[in-house]
Design brief:
Strand content: under 5%
Number of strands: 0
Number of domains: 1
Radius of gyration: 46 Å
Order of helices and strands: HH
Number of helices: 2
Oligomer: single chain
Distance between the termini: 158 Å
Largest sheet: none
Shape: rod-shaped
Length: 115
Amino acid sequence: MEEQVKQVMPMLAEMKKEMGTGMEKMDARNKEIDEKMDTRNKSKNECNNRRDERKNGKYGRKNRQAKNKIIISLSEKFQKEVEANKNEIEEIREEMKDVKTNLENMENIVGRNMV
């Protein structure tokens, strides 16, 4: 029995070494796979980020819609201001006409008094 144990012990030690190297190889392989998956995930995330940026970013649909809403609201605001300015201009023109007629009347009065 002891002889069998002595014969088996070197075989077990050798198997242990082989298992150790096998485990190291498996660990190395798993590490490589993990690195590849990390790079894939990174590139996938970058791709998704670019897609989201196209969709929502500077030139994206949502941003264009927001810009269009702002432009529409600003154009409405400016349209109201333009209308108000037109009304003010008309009032000023009417006042200028009144001033002009008053000046003409004063010239006529002064002209009569001089003659």
